[in-house]
Design a protein that fits this description.
Mean pLDDT: 92
Structural class: mainly alpha
Oligomer: single chain
Helix content: over 70%
Radius of gyration: 16 Å
Strand order of the largest sheet: 1-2
């Protein structure tokens, strides 16, 4: 799982390089590709909360609400916001997701497995956040 998470960072880096060298793929700039990919990944990460909600008899509504709120926020921001607005919104959503997962970690019974997972999530999320800020500053 750790390698897959870090492989998921590669498209962010490649699209920043496209943007830096002012190169497009088809009709899309590096910044646009970065934003599209980020929206997909953020919605995927929010969707993992939905999967957890299905298994949780007590806190399912909170998890389902958080999942939908983040996915819909990102979606509407993509439609109605400019690139810089989307990038800032994505940073906030990624941080909210990892904070919420840290809260869930504290409530978890399986601390060993969750400890490794949460450490990886924090590292990957902070890397992705830095890449968002780098692209934001380059625009």
């Amino acid at each position: 799982m750790i390698y897959l998470a870090w492989l998921g960072v590669v498209p962010f880096i490649l699209s920043i390089l496209l943007n830096f060298f002012d190169y497009s793929l088809g009709a899309y700039s590096g910044a646009q590709i970065f934003v599209f990919y980020s929206v997909i990944i953020c919605c995927f990460m929010a969707g993992t909360l939905w999967g957890q909600a299905i298994k949780d008899n007590v806190n399912w509504l909170k998890k389902a609400f958080a999942s939908n709120l983040i996915a819909l926020t990102v979606f509407f921001c993509l439609i109605f916001g400019g690139t810089k607005t989307v990038l800032l919104t994505m940073v906030i959503c990624y941080l909210l997701l990892v904070i919420y997962e840290c809260i869930l970690y504290r409530q978890s019974d399986d601390k060993t497995m969750m400890s490794n997972y949460i450490r990886m999530r924090i590292q990957v999320t902070l890397t992705v956040v830095v890449l968002h800020i780098a692209l934001y500053l380059s625009l």
